[in-house]
Amino acid sequence: MKKIDDRYFVNPNLDQESLEACLEADEQILWRGKPYKKSFILSSVFRFLPVAVIFLLFDLTFLIMLGAFFDGLPWFVYIFIAVFFCFHLLPLWIWIAGIVSSSKRQQKEEYAFTSKRIIVKQGLIGSSVVSLYYPSLTSVNLKIGLIEKLCKVGDIYIVAANQRAVLEDIKDPYFIASRLQGIANDIKADIYYPNDLRPKDNHGYNSRYKGTNDPNEKE
Predict the structure, then answer these.
(1) Strand extents, DSSP E, the chain
(2) What is the DSSP letter of 193?
């Protein structure tokens, strides 16, 4: 029976909030990044701005009309109205909270491509770490909106077999997305087609189509 190493569960005294604390023993970080702060905060400002403005204008209009036509109401009615509108303006409070917390969220959010997986670390008060292993990846997509275009960043959408993740406001998004796709393809090839099983000459991959007119003629 194989003896279990007594040091397997020994804490290596790493910062438990760092990405290094999430790594396996033989895992290496190939790339790491964070959301670009300016774009991340601007996105938080404009994300729910139309909804917040609509609710605010609607409630202000209603309050002005209420004050004009229903003057002299009992005091408890005003308390009820104030409490009602505090709850009714919940989208506005959520929008403000998102803006206020955006800087802190940007500081704690971090991404990494390792030799085995993609790590997405997020959180505000606590932390959540999502791992997407390369063999399970099905697509890597890129989205660049108006704010992202102005700040020269982009959002990378990663879809795996049972998981999804978004790398927000990444600098050099085209380059990073293409490199990620390349890493995923290389590691998938290493897993499914180890070097010992690969022929020296592979005529089925990277072959060049010569444009022959004879459908029976092969390259």
Answers:
(1) 29-33, 110-114, 117-122, 128-133, 137-143, 153-160, 164-171
(2) S
- Considering Cα of 180, then 185, then 189, then 195, what sign does the dihedral take? negative
- In the DSSP assignment, the letter for residue 77 is H
Q: Report CA dihedral (21, 24, 25, 29) to the nearest 10 degrees.
A: -80
Residues of the chain with pLDDT under 70: 1-17, 67-73, 75, 126, 192-219
Name the pTM for this structure: 0.69
Measured N-to-C along each axis, helices 49-69 and 90-108 cross at an angle, to the nearest 10 degrees, of: 150
Short-list 155, 168, 37, CA closest to 107 = 37
pLDDT tens string 141-173: 999 988 888 899 999 999 988 888 999 999 999
DSSP output for 84-108:
HHHHHTHHHHHHHHHHHHHHHHHHH
